[in-house]
Automatic annotation (TrEMBL):
InterPro entries with a match to the protein in the record: DUF488-N3a (IPR054495)
Lineage of producing organism: Archaea, Methanobacteriati, Methanobacteriota, Stenosarchaea group, Halobacteria
Protein name: DUF488 domain-containing protein
One Pfam family cited in the UniProt record for this chain: DUF488-N3a
Residue ranges constituting the DUF488 domain according to the UniProt record: 23-143
Length: 144
Protein backbone atom coordinates (compact mmCIF):
# COMPACT_ATOMS: atom_id res chain seq x y z
CA UNK A 1 0.00 0.00 0.00
CA UNK A 2 1.49 3.36 -1.01
CA UNK A 3 1.57 6.30 1.38
CA UNK A 4 -1.17 8.14 -0.53
CA UNK A 5 -3.40 5.04 -0.30
CA UNK A 6 -3.28 5.41 3.48
CA UNK A 7 -4.93 8.83 3.29
CA UNK A 8 -8.71 9.27 3.22
CA UNK A 9 -11.19 11.95 4.16
CA UNK A 10 -14.74 12.19 5.45
CA UNK A 11 -17.05 14.50 7.37
CA UNK A 12 -17.93 14.34 11.05
CA UNK A 13 -21.66 13.55 10.62
CA UNK A 14 -20.78 10.53 8.48
CA UNK A 15 -18.70 9.20 11.37
CA UNK A 16 -21.34 9.98 13.98
CA UNK A 17 -24.09 8.24 12.00
CA UNK A 18 -22.02 5.28 10.72
CA UNK A 19 -22.38 6.38 7.09
CA UNK A 20 -18.75 5.56 6.27
CA UNK A 21 -16.49 2.61 6.91
CA UNK A 22 -13.22 3.66 8.47
CA UNK A 23 -10.51 1.08 9.12
CA UNK A 24 -10.17 0.52 12.87
CA UNK A 25 -6.42 1.20 12.71
CA UNK A 26 -6.90 4.61 11.03
CA UNK A 27 -6.28 7.80 12.98
CA UNK A 28 -9.13 10.31 12.66
CA UNK A 29 -7.42 13.65 12.13
CA UNK A 30 -9.57 16.74 12.45
CA UNK A 31 -8.53 19.61 10.21
CA UNK A 32 -10.78 22.25 11.74
CA UNK A 33 -9.72 25.75 12.80
CA UNK A 34 -12.57 26.12 15.33
CA UNK A 35 -13.57 22.65 16.57
CA UNK A 36 -16.66 22.24 18.71
CA UNK A 37 -16.71 19.99 21.77
CA UNK A 38 -18.72 17.33 19.95
CA UNK A 39 -16.26 17.47 17.05
CA UNK A 40 -13.33 16.89 19.41
CA UNK A 41 -15.03 13.81 20.88
CA UNK A 42 -15.44 12.29 17.39
CA UNK A 43 -11.82 12.60 16.18
CA UNK A 44 -8.57 11.28 17.66
CA UNK A 45 -6.75 14.60 17.25
CA UNK A 46 -7.16 17.95 15.53
CA UNK A 47 -4.76 20.16 13.57
CA UNK A 48 -6.22 23.69 13.71
CA UNK A 49 -3.31 24.90 11.55
CA UNK A 50 -4.76 22.90 8.64
CA UNK A 51 -8.16 24.53 8.87
CA UNK A 52 -8.66 27.53 6.61
CA UNK A 53 -6.94 30.68 7.93
CA UNK A 54 -9.18 32.85 10.14
CA UNK A 55 -9.54 35.69 7.62
CA UNK A 56 -10.50 33.32 4.79
CA UNK A 57 -12.91 31.42 7.02
CA UNK A 58 -14.59 34.61 8.25
CA UNK A 59 -14.88 36.09 4.75
CA UNK A 60 -16.25 32.83 3.38
CA UNK A 61 -18.84 32.47 6.17
CA UNK A 62 -20.02 36.06 5.70
CA UNK A 63 -20.48 35.64 1.95
CA UNK A 64 -22.22 32.28 2.53
CA UNK A 65 -24.72 33.98 4.85
CA UNK A 66 -25.17 36.88 2.40
CA UNK A 67 -26.03 34.47 -0.40
CA UNK A 68 -28.47 32.60 1.83
CA UNK A 69 -30.16 35.90 2.74
CA UNK A 70 -30.55 36.50 -1.00
CA UNK A 71 -32.58 33.29 -1.20
CA UNK A 72 -29.97 30.74 -2.26
CA UNK A 73 -30.13 27.24 -0.81
CA UNK A 74 -27.37 26.33 1.63
CA UNK A 75 -25.43 24.27 -0.92
CA UNK A 76 -25.69 26.94 -3.62
CA UNK A 77 -24.69 29.69 -1.18
CA UNK A 78 -21.73 27.62 0.03
CA UNK A 79 -20.39 26.98 -3.45
CA UNK A 80 -21.04 30.56 -4.65
CA UNK A 81 -19.17 31.94 -1.63
CA UNK A 82 -16.34 29.45 -2.28
CA UNK A 83 -15.92 30.85 -5.79
CA UNK A 84 -16.32 34.50 -4.86
CA UNK A 85 -13.66 34.52 -2.13
CA UNK A 86 -11.29 32.42 -4.28
CA UNK A 87 -11.23 29.83 -1.51
CA UNK A 88 -9.33 27.11 -3.34
CA UNK A 89 -6.56 29.41 -4.57
CA UNK A 90 -6.15 31.09 -1.19
CA UNK A 91 -6.20 27.86 0.81
CA UNK A 92 -3.62 26.22 -1.48
CA UNK A 93 -1.40 29.30 -1.05
CA UNK A 94 -1.80 29.05 2.70
CA UNK A 95 -0.69 25.40 2.65
CA UNK A 96 2.47 26.22 0.71
CA UNK A 97 3.31 29.59 2.31
CA UNK A 98 2.05 29.42 5.90
CA UNK A 99 4.67 28.30 8.42
CA UNK A 100 2.11 26.60 10.71
CA UNK A 101 0.53 24.77 7.80
CA UNK A 102 3.90 23.71 6.37
CA UNK A 103 4.93 22.26 9.73
CA UNK A 104 1.67 20.32 10.09
CA UNK A 105 1.86 19.03 6.50
CA UNK A 106 5.45 17.85 7.07
CA UNK A 107 4.44 16.04 10.26
CA UNK A 108 1.49 14.29 8.62
CA UNK A 109 3.57 13.40 5.56
CA UNK A 110 6.13 11.74 7.85
CA UNK A 111 3.40 9.80 9.62
CA UNK A 112 2.02 8.54 6.29
CA UNK A 113 5.49 7.55 5.12
CA UNK A 114 5.93 5.65 8.40
CA UNK A 115 2.87 3.57 7.53
CA UNK A 116 0.14 5.28 9.55
CA UNK A 117 -3.33 5.42 8.01
CA UNK A 118 -4.99 8.84 8.32
CA UNK A 119 -8.54 10.03 7.73
CA UNK A 120 -9.03 13.80 7.51
CA UNK A 121 -12.26 14.97 9.10
CA UNK A 122 -14.10 18.29 9.00
CA UNK A 123 -17.71 19.48 8.95
CA UNK A 124 -18.65 19.66 5.26
CA UNK A 125 -20.47 16.90 3.40
CA UNK A 126 -18.54 16.98 0.13
CA UNK A 127 -21.29 15.22 -1.78
CA UNK A 128 -22.91 18.64 -2.05
CA UNK A 129 -20.30 21.17 -0.97
CA UNK A 130 -16.67 21.80 -1.80
CA UNK A 131 -14.31 21.45 1.15
CA UNK A 132 -10.77 22.34 2.15
CA UNK A 133 -10.03 18.80 3.38
CA UNK A 134 -10.11 17.45 -0.19
CA UNK A 135 -7.63 20.17 -1.20
CA UNK A 136 -5.47 19.22 1.79
CA UNK A 137 -5.62 15.54 0.85
CA UNK A 138 -4.50 16.38 -2.72
CA UNK A 139 -1.71 18.57 -1.33
CA UNK A 140 -0.38 15.80 0.96
CA UNK A 141 -0.64 13.19 -1.77
CA UNK A 142 1.51 15.43 -3.98
CA UNK A 143 4.12 15.65 -1.19
CA UNK A 144 4.44 11.86 -1.05
Amino acid sequence: MSSSDRLEDTYVAALQHDLVDVPSEATLVGVVRRPTGWFRTTVDENYPALGPPENLLDEFKQRHEDFKMQGMCDEGAHNAAWDEVKFEERYRSYLTDGAEAQEAVAELTDRLQDGEQLVFVCFENTDQKRCHRTLLKEHLAAQL
